[in-house]
Amino acid sequence: MAMLKNKVAFITGAGGGIGRGIARRFAREGACVIVAEIDEHSGRETAAQVDELGGQALFVRTDVTDKASLLAAIDAGVTRFGGLDILVNNAFVPSANVLLEDKTDEMLERTLTSTVKASWWAMRAALPHMKLRGGGKIINFYSIDVDVGAWLHADYNTAKAGVVGLTRSAAAEWGRFNITVNAIAPTAMGATFHKFAEENPGFAERAAAMRPMGRCGDPENDIGPAALFLASDLSCYVTGETLHVDGGLHLPGYNSRPEHIATREY
């Protein structure tokens, strides 16, 4: 039996990469998927794939940095499918890879908005609908970049650390509604990975070698099953957890210091 039959999932940033991989995996398990994506072309592509794989899809153009846009997308999904069971807060807006001292307030604000604030807005909007269903599943996203203090990602690291705080707080408070709230810390071959691989010969091989599993993750086949676990009844007694789905990369970690940065500067 399909594990998500008759379940309704709202996935932000579902137009590509990990978001699309999760949407496709959920579709194979019979879910109704609300594809919340700012890029109309990629969003409609994902929606078409969901339909082809056995799910039901609704594409809603969504800007997660705009509260009204995000709430309207949730309302549209609930109107179309009659409720909401699963929320996947995957989308974020990247900023330029520059040193902490060169990050601007605008970069920080946009990164915080697209991650912490967007997750906060979506979770609070989803709550009444999940309560009506007798419970729900919320999946947020953390990053190994926080653990290693990844260079050039100071705003992103700050935001993702905040997401864990939000995840744990919601898990503690919303268990009384039979809502589980967990986070995934993934690494996978999304659009950014493929861009780096094209521009930097040998990048893919080096990335694979860093992981104990010896390979890089696939959005649908490696990250998708972890999301499916957290979205299904299999995880009914799991909440407040952060699950690393990275082929073991979190064990050795990695050195992100750019080669051109001097050891000591005055």
From TrEMBL:
Alphabetically ordered keywords of this record: Oxidoreductase
GO MF term set: oxidoreductase activity
Pfam families (alphabetical): adh_short_C2
Assigned EC number: 1.1.1.-
InterPro entries the UniProt entry points to: NAD(P)-bd_dom_sf, Sc_DH/Rdtase_CS, SDR_fam
Family listed: Belongs to the short-chain dehydrogenases/reductases (SDR) family.
Record's protein name: SDR family NAD(P)-dependent oxidoreductase
Native species: Zhongshania guokunii
